[in-house]
Design a protein that fits this description.
This protein folds into three domains: 229 residues, FAD/NAD(P)-binding domain, CATH 3.50.50.60; 126 residues, no CATH class; 142 residues, Polyamine Oxidase, Chain A, domain 2, CATH 3.90.660. It has 16 helices and 18 strands. A hairpin with a 2-residue loop joins strand 11 and strand 12. Helix 1 runs parallel beside helix 9 and helix 1 packs parallel to helix 16. The radius of gyration is 22 Å and the shape is globular. It starts with a strand and ends in a 10-residue tail after the last helix. Bound molecules: flavin-adenine dinucleotide. The site of flavin-adenine dinucleotide has 38 residues, from helix 1, strand 2, strand 10, strand 13 and helix 16.
């Protein structure tokens, strides 16, 4: 019998588990994969190490300081064992045909560079930043609503509900439409991949929250993102907790209407585990798929109604030699094939990607001992991979991937690689290795329904839905993770803290940093 069972060892699950351990709880963490960390895990091929789900981090900066609330939380939970390297300035570059713009922090530097490059657009730039500030404030309140006790959330909604509803309905595309200059529009909208919702549906508040977070700086974990799990797990274990890897939760069990256990499969055998309460950080759809249909049916129906967000293809590249001399840097490059930055990849077999996100992680990690690497992400419609994706709730597929999938994947990989090399030709002679992940890979390793990049589709309906609050309608069952908080390691981690604080209110003190 455990104090709490946490399902999923991504940053949300591990933050929740370590926070509860700090309050003396014995926590069992169950993870279906054989490596902990969820999207913060890394993998190795020969002398190259790749990080599929972390390219840069906000909110972990100089401590104490305005940039570091999540960093201060991690320092507390992990006994100060984590370090973060500044990704430098500029940290993002937007590259359009015949035009490049480097984004620097702090915001004042970014804004001054925009004003210098687009001198006739001063009033539009001023309006944009005013709107971003207001949207960011609204985003924080919407996030807080996820974790507040129902009576407090009710009061806050009464006070600010109408304004918050108006804010969450405004899309990024609507805000961009008020920018007269096409190139400026492209620069301001280019980074929607940080939350994975194209401008037509992306709530402006989410865009403001995520891109604005980097205004305080951009960092990379020293030693790679796997260090996050390596730093948090000892805290869980020191308090008498445990982690089971390869432990796939299949059922959440209730006694007298209260969630108090799980049944998980490990090495083909089913095991029960009991606890006073559960925190599910495996994705909200995966959570309801583990419940009997008659448990909180209205909530289950609402959750089943959410669509998975956009998926992505990721190309992992290994080099030998000096990639910095060949044009790579610690800044991420957002490459677009035209000034229309909204479209995503619909037919990967037949056309090039409209945009690529390119990161060179080995240049960001001062402790990287291996060979240089690049990671290239292209957001795509998972439809192209539909024949090989599993339906939600289906048992995970084992065994080799089918031949037709492998052939399709190889074809798309060659196309994506050729597109990358057209934009970075000087890197071609140094290239030694490439491998591509698809929506099928994403679904396999972290079980995201539909192979979605960041879980549930990010739109206004999802932002306003109480179905994604930390407290689920099932007594004893709490939720954490990117479906609750929105995309990003800091946001998902903070949702883990909110879930833990719902059980141990003293933890709320850690929210302020
Ligand atoms: C390509 C890509 C690039 C990204 N880049 C960045 C970035 O640069 N900066 C940033 O801040 N964020 C980035 N993100 C987003 C960030 O990685 C995620 O938002 C965050 O890590 C999500 O954490 P989580 O704990 O909610 O989910 P996850 O990390 O997905 O963890 C969920 C865990 O639950 C486990 N699980 C699922 N089902 C079960 C089950 N039945 N039983 C047991 N375990 C189960 C999964 O295996 C997984 O380990 C990126 C994501 C992607 C995909």
């Amino acid at each position: 019998m455990w104090d709490t069972v946490v399902i999923g060892s991504g940053i949300a699950g591990l933050t929740a588990a370590a926070a509860l351990a700090r309050r003396g709880q014995r926590v069992l963490v169950l993870e279906q994969h054989h490596t902990p960390g969820g999207l913060t895990q890394t993998f190795r091929r020969a002398d190259w190490t790749f990080a599929p789900g972390v390219h840069y981090l906000a909110d972990v900066g100089a401590q104490p300081g305005p940039g570091g609330p999540f960093g201060r939380l991690l320092a507390w939970l992990g006994d100060g064992t984590l370090r973060f390297a500044d990704s430098g300035n500029p940290y993002d570059v937007v590259r359009l045909p015949g035009f490049e713009f480097a984004i620097e922090h702090p915001e004042a530097a970014y804004r001054a560079a925009l004003e210098a490059r687009f001198p006739a657009q001063g009033p539009a730039i001023a309006r944009w930043f005013d709107e971003m500030h207001a949207a960011r404030k609204a985003a924080f309140t919407l996030f807080a609503l996820r974790g507040l006790p129902p009576w407090l959330a009710w009061g806050l909604r009464l006070w600010r509900g109408a304004e918050l509803d108006r804010m969450r309905q405004r899309t990024l595309a609507e805000a961009l439409a008020e920018i007269p200059d096409a190139r400026l529009r492209a620069v301001l909208g280019a980074r929607w991949g940080d939350h994975g919702a194209p401008p037509e549906t992306a709530p402006l508040v989410e865009h403001a929250l995520i891109t604005g977070a980097y205004d305080a700086g951009s960092w990379y974990p020293v030693g790679g993102p796997a260090r996050l799990a390596q730093s948090l797990l000892p805290t869980v274990l020191a308090a008498g907790g445990q982690i089971e890897l390869g432990a796939s939760v299949e059922r959440i069990t209730l006694t007298g209407g209260r969630a108090d256990g799980v049944v998980y499969r490990r090495n083909g055998t089913l095991h029960p585990a009991g606890a006073r309460q559960l925190i599910s950080a495996m994705g909200v759809r995966n959570t309801v798929d583990c419940l009997d249909r008659e448990v909180a049916p209205a909530w289950q129906a609402e959750v089943r109604g959410f669509r998975p967000g956009l998926s992505y293809l990721s190309l992992f590249l290994g080099f030998e030699g000096d990639i910095a001399a060949a044009g790579a840097s610690s800044a991420n490059v957002w490459v677009y094939e035209s000034e229309a930055v909204g479209p995503f990849w619909r037919a990967p077999a037949d056309e090039d990607a409209p945009g690529l996100f390119v990161s060179f992680p080995s240049l960001k990690d001062p402790a990287c001992a291996g060979q240089p690497t690049a990671e290239v992400v292209a957001f795509c419609d998972a439809e192209a991979f539909a024949p090989w994706l599993q339906a939600p709730g289906a048992a995970p597929a084992d065994g080799d991937r089918p031949e037709d999938y492998l052939a399709f994947k190889a074809w798309v990989e060659e196309r994506l690689l050729a597109q990358f090399l057209r934009h970075f030709p000087a890197l071609a002679p140094l290239l030694r290795f490439h491998e591509m992940s698809t929506p099928v890979t994403q679904q396999h390793f972290v079980r995201t329904p539909g192979g979605a990049t960041y879980g549930i589709e990010m739109d206004a309906a999802r932002l306003g839905s109480p179905a994604l609050n930390v407290r689920s309608p099932v007594p004893g069952l709490l939720l954490a993770g990117q479906d609750v908080s929105g995309a990003g390691v800091p946001a998902a981690g903070m949702s883990g803290l909110l879930a833990a604080a719902a059980l141990e209110p003293a933890l709320l003190r850690q929210l302020g940093g």
